[in-house]
Amino acid sequence: MEEVEVNDGDSPYTVEKAPLRNPDLTLNVGELLSLYGWYLLFGTLLVYLLLQYLSGRRSSQRSSPPPTPQDAALVARRQEAMEAARMKMQEELDAKASIFREKQKQQEEEKRRQKIKIWDSMQQGKSYRGTATPSQPPAEASSSAAARPKPDKKPLRSADYSPLSGQEGGSCTFRPGRRGPSAGG
What we know:
This protein is mostly helical. The chain has helices spanning 29-61, 69-123, 138-147, and strands at 4-6, 15-17.
């Protein structure tokens, strides 16, 4: 408990107390570092990195010196060079686009001719499937079918096999489950 001294000298009501000491609240530096050392280290490192980041940001936000006439000329030359490069790239793109449009027109014209050819053959009573596609000449279309004769295959099952009869081989048979309540439960 606390030490209490009572002085009867000056006043009967005066009580002097000794300073409070809580053993749980007193820590020395060694105990503090052993308990919270890693937290203190990481916290200090975090504060240091934050200060470095903010100081770098602040210095980059500072106004740069006013541009000199030499810098203005350099910037103008760079912009002209960039504009020339953009124009060159745009011309190349336009050339490629015109070539692509020409190819598209040629393909559409070929399709139109093919449709007219099919229509004429249908008007004459011929089959339009008999005509070869533009990608395959007529000689190749007929020769590819003749080049592959059908091989003689054995049938997988005999001719008198019936899956509903349950005979003629096959070890699997259907067995219906038991009716009624199960025996286990």
